[in-house]
Amino acid sequence: MESLKHRTAFSGFAVKDLDAARKFYADTLGLDVKEDAMHHLNLQINNGQTMVLIYPKPDHQPAVFTVLNFTVENIDETVDALTAKGVKFQQYGPPIQTDAKGIVRGGKPLVAWFTDPSGNIISVLQM
């Protein structure tokens, strides 16, 4: 078997509504979103060095865990900018405690979670 150690890889997840996902990831998050020949969405992240596949699944049920993480330089600025675009950050209580903005500040990394229109959990992290 060919070793996978040095091969390119990408991740993917499902959404219920591809049009809502396209609008959210492109317009709200400001990502480059391309549609492939199979009508799946490809998020082009880090100048195209990273790709995330988004595919439609009509009976989609969101995972109960984070499916996509973005590292950011300044979590407060990022949370404020996304909040201004209508993103609602999750509020969690003990044992994970978020502040009023939805940021966990109890150590490193600083992290805040939000969901896409299909309920998939996404985070921003400041290392």
Automatic annotation (TrEMBL):
It comes from the Bacteria. Residues 3-127 form the VOC domain. InterPro entries: Glyas_Bleomycin-R_OHBP_Dase (IPR029068), Glyas_Fos-R_dOase_dom (IPR004360), VOC_core (IPR037523). Gene3D superfamilies: 2,3-Dihydroxybiphenyl 1,2-Dioxygenase, domain 1. This is Glyoxalase.
